[in-house]
Design brief:
The chain is α+β, with helices and mostly antiparallel strands and 84 residues long. The chain is built from three helices and three strands, in the order βββααα.
Amino acid sequence: MAYKISDEITWKDLKSGVVILHINSGDYFTLNETASQIWYGIVAGKEDTEIIQALVDAYDAPKKEMAKDFAETIQLLREEKVIR
């Protein structure tokens, strides 16, 4: 599933990760390295499976663990209305 970034969102890539600002609420989020990689996948329009596989490759981690991290990050971004 490809995700759409909410219109009220702006973001910046920093050396330490990604910072996301919700313009209407003023809330901001700092993503850690793994969540930042998920964000880059979302921005690139990649599918879930592609993003998860990229995480597995990047971190040499079990697919099950990366799928769990992916699902938790997606849930948080949805709850905060960062993505749809």
